[in-house]
Amino acid sequence: MRQISVLAWAMVAALGVLFSQVSDLAAGERYGKQKVVYHINYDGGPDDKKYRGAMRNIQNHINAVGADNMEIKVVLHGNGLGLLMTAKENQKVQSAVTSLKTQNVTFQVCNNTLKGRKISYENDLFEVFEDDIIPSGVAELSHLQQQGYTYIKP
Questions:
Q1: pLDDT, position 3
Q2: How do residues 29-64 score in pLDDT, each as one tens digit?
Q3: Quick check: 94 pLDDT over 60?
Q4: Torsion angle, CA of 14/15/17/22, rounded to 10 degrees?
């Protein structure tokens, strides 16, 4: 009888160690290094709720994996440019974009959309610079996936 209780306690202790290790892995080590491209080509909706939700998803992703383990690009084309148009006026969206940029998230803007919609990246968009302009949003998505980026559409 004593051998069974010693064995039972040993199993409980082993399970405790195992659960502790799994818990530690979930804190960031579980995921390793990640390259991710977020695709935004939609309207933000009432109160820019969709844009704020997308920014929150990206932040949650960073929180889970760790900024040092992430390479994140946000590709914006079509109606997605509304995110950076909105950020010029909407403090919540602006704060989210700024916060993500400080964590090395890059925002890439489609030149086809800029030309087609006659949008000035210098005047109409929040903190977009020449280096942020890509020739084509959809071509960039394909290019990044070929380089091993995981595609996410929040």
A1: 54
A2: 789 999 999 999 999 999 999 999 999 999 999 999
A3: yes
A4: 140
CB atoms within 10 A of CB 41: 19
The answer, as to whether pTM is greater than 0.90, is no
Q: Which two tokens stand for residue 17?
A: 């160690």
CATH of the domain at 117: 3.40.1260.10
- What's the rounded Cα separation, in Å, for the pair 154 and 144? 17
* Domain span including residue 8: 1-30
Phi then psi for residue 31, to 5 deg, are -95, -25
Tokens found for residue 70: 């992430």
DSSP assignment, residue 33? -
